[in-house]
Amino acid sequence: MATREYRIYIDESAIKSLGNLPKKIQRQICRKIETLATNPRPQGSQKIRGVEGDYFRIKSGNYRIIYQVDDEKITVFVVRIADRKEVYRRLRKR
After folding, report:
1. Are 8 and 76 in contact (CB under 8 A)?
2. In terms of Cα–Cα distance, which of 92, 54, 65 is closest to 11?
3. How are beta strands 46-47 and 56-60 bridged, if at all?
4. Which residues are CB-contacts of 87 (< 8 A; sequence separation ≥ 6)?
5. Cβ neighbours for 60, distance < 8 A, ≥ 6 positions apart
6. Is the entire prediction scored with pTM above 0.85?
7. Of 3, 85, 69, 83, nearest to 33 (Cα)?
8. Which domains, from first to last, does the chain contain?
9. For 4-31, how does the pLDDT look when each residue is reduced to its tens digit (9 = 90+)?
């Protein structure tokens, strides 16, 4: 049985944030994001509690990747990439 490949979409603000990081960190984060295509909820991913919507997060060093998964449309939408100290700001609280 073949596994489904999820399409990955990255928000423009997340792309901009990624572009401001050192090249080594950019490559590390891109590899993490690419793995979401085959497994959108990898070991270590956590659902973020206390915010509107179903957001997940994965760690990449001191950075966090915040994303949503749509299983019906087989997509992953990356909404934020930021340092762990700032990443949760501006997420809508419940």
Report:
1. yes
2. 65
3. antiparallel
4. 57, 63, 64, 66, 80, 81
5. 25, 28, 29, 32
6. yes
7. 69
8. 7-83 (3.30.2310.20)
9. 799 999 999 999 999 999 999 999 999 9
